[in-house]
Amino acid sequence: MKIAALMNVGLDRGTRRIARVCWLRLSLLAVLAAPGLADDQGQSRTDPRNWQPIPDSVYLQEIGRKVSSKVPLTSVAAYEGRVYVSSTEGVAELRELELVPAAGVTGPVKRLVAVKGGLFALGADGVWRFGGGKWVNFAKQPIVDLCEVGGGIVAASERQTWHVGESGFDPLIQTNCPLPISRVVSYAETIYTVGGEGLSLLASQRPAIHGGFDSYLVNDVIDWGMLPSRNVRDALAVGSRVYLATDRGLGVLQGMTMSSIRGEQGFCYEDTTCLARGFTNDVWVGTARGAIRMVGNEFQYFAGERWLPDDLVHGVAVNGTTVYIATAKGLGIVEYRPYTMLKKAAYYERHLEMWGQKRLGFTHKLEWDDGLKEFVREVSDNDGGYSGDYLAAEAYRYAVTKDPIARAEAVNTFQALRWLEASTGIRGFPARAIWVKNEKGHKSMSGSGGYPAEWHDCVDARFEWKGDTSSDEIDGHFYAVALFLQLAAQGEEIAQAKTHLSHLAAHLADHNWQLIDLDGQPTRWGRWDPDYFNTDEGRADRGLQSVEILSFIKTASKLTGETRFARDYQKLVDLGYPAYTVRERITFPPSDVVHFDTQLGLWAIWNLLRSEEDPTLRSFYRRTLERTWEIVRIEGLPWFNFVYGALTGNDFEGDVAVAHLREWPLDLIDWSFENSHRADLKTPAGYRVYTGGIRAVSRRETEAMRWDDWTMKLDGGSGGRDVSDPGGWLLAYWMGRYYGFIEAPTTADPRLLGVAPGEVPEGGAKPYVGPQRPGE
């Protein structure tokens, strides 16, 4: 290799002399430390495995539904397997996904309370009790809360406490509570009352008196600490703690010590409204902006259109493993079902089929069409790249399972990518996308840099192809087709894949590292030539562009065996391109940070490090990967993590990657979401932010995504007008399985390994019914 060529790029004579000495030392270190040639699974033979596999064990997958209401719901309760809600119009029972008014309750109801002795509806004008299948008026007192105490029930009005008998209320003690009461709870064999100003407890001094209480103690409740706010809305006793919902987070009474759970502890939103016991050592917290599930020290946020009809939560109830959240506009339902990631992969495969997200071998997101009043397929700027994720996923899936269906899907998508090149009539120049004339769908009409889209007729006049192809497409083709060739191609497909890669690489090499369009000019984003690198834009872009062009030509050299590409690759080395690669990821200025560039860079780095054997060049490319990984590590994207782990053998934060995959919603509709108001927005310890943002946000709390999106985006979504393509999720899962990062499921239950008919709801776009690919 010509080291001097790398030292002569943009440096004066004195700087070059110093650089040569440094690089000679680096070269020696690189030779001594160079890893062996990558094996058939990409990891170097000498790299240690500094990670542990994660089993595809059974976990609970959230499934959301919503029931709208014309009036605000004030509370919700589960009793004897049924769910009831209250409102200013009384009580209604949830049947299927409909709220059916219950007879017998007249007047507004503020609160429903389910205890062992029955279900009570508490209103301003009295109390109703449910029993024997009907509601009956129980008392006229304006009761605010009830709780179980031992084998009995204690109730509270605004200033008094009562024993609940068979036919009404008897005073528990004669004196009034000095604080107004809103809640009553039993904790440590003691009754606590909670109000808008704090806590008090009922102290036993004369056990012979009915109820065993005759006074309230207000000042002796807390020895240490203080409430986060005196505006207390609800209380819940769980084990050794009493949780108190306030407008500044949760108070936690343990013994006689009060602590707080607020944003600095990771609590999502502090203006809390209500509390409920969960189903597996968890606690649910209603807030003015959604609901929070507390599981140990983890806080899961359920808000926005995906989960709730409205974010103002008035009540939460749990029935089995289903959670019901009463809001100002209806009921949010979050059902937990046992899943494995393998089952989730099967779900997404079925979703692609049932929702019409496949067409002519391509995979598509869906968009709502206002005129047709239905979802249609988007024909995008990057159909080859996005469909390449699915091609790679199916290649990995076939390599893991040997399932002929997976190979058939991979072959179909590979032939679609080949068609993108054949459609243009320009060897080595693939189209961005192909449109079927008069088809029902959304045809991309925007071009690069704000210019109009460039659509041209195919040789087969039934189709059009989109030009002005960018580097994105070439990246996607090389990444996906190389994996297909190595993992799933058979028979004539092997030669077809090699020829396809050869055509793409030769086009760039023969046109001075440019992608030349139909007009004989380079496309807007298809330049890797030295002249471009000397422009202001090119200087900022050359780190990524150098990784790409080196990867394209080196991959073609390795996989096709054509000697010309080895010579072409050496030309790039002589031009000094390897030295540019180390700063592949742009982090400054903020206006130049484009988050989808990370996927482009990792597509290219993947092939480049798997193909390169020269130790000095590998030292450049490995540092490129290490720098990029550190920049994007905070995002926690599983595909990013798996690429790093497979190429290095280093720890790749597999637990973060698997959590991301599990937290993806089954509902792929792109609902709007907001997180910028949250109280837990701080950068986690051990991470730094290099490309803007504060922290990654769970897919449960945002949206499904492609790997060119950004997990640190706090607000977004399209109001339910788009449906995401799950090809990226499938790629990450099957890649994880192929490399052993994710082990096979630990269960043999067939219900947890696949999806049954009816598990994937109907919806989406109508199936494609137009002409097929030429030759099909």
What secondary-structure arrangement, pairings included, does this model have?
Blueprint: H1 3-7, H2 13-33, E1 54-56, E2 59-68, E3 73-79, E4 82-87, E5 90-95, E6 98-101, E7 111-115, E8 118-123, E9 126-131, E10 134-139, E11 145-149, E12 152-156, E13 161-164, E14 169-171, E15 183-187, E16 190-195, E17 198-203, E18 215-217, E19 232-238, E20 241-246, E21 249-254, E22 257-261, E23 272-277, E24 282-287, E25 290-295, E26 298-302, E27 313-319, E28 322-327, E29 330-339, H3 341-354, E30 358-359, E31 362-363, E32 366-369, E33 374-379, H4 383-401, H5 404-422, E34 434-436, E35 442-443, E36 455-457, E37 463-466, H6 471-487, H7 492-510, E38 514-516, E39 522-527, H8 530-533, H9 536-560, H10 563-574, H11 577-580, H12 597-611, H13 615-632, H14 638-648, H15 654-663, E40 722-723, H16 727-738, E41 742-745
Parallel strand pairs: 1-41, 33-35
Antiparallel strand pairs: 2-29, 3-4, 4-5, 5-6, 7-8, 8-9, 9-10, 11-12, 12-13, 13-14, 15-16, 16-17, 17-18, 19-20, 20-21, 21-22, 23-24, 24-25, 25-26, 27-28, 28-29, 30-31, 32-33, 32-40, 34-37, 36-37, 38-39
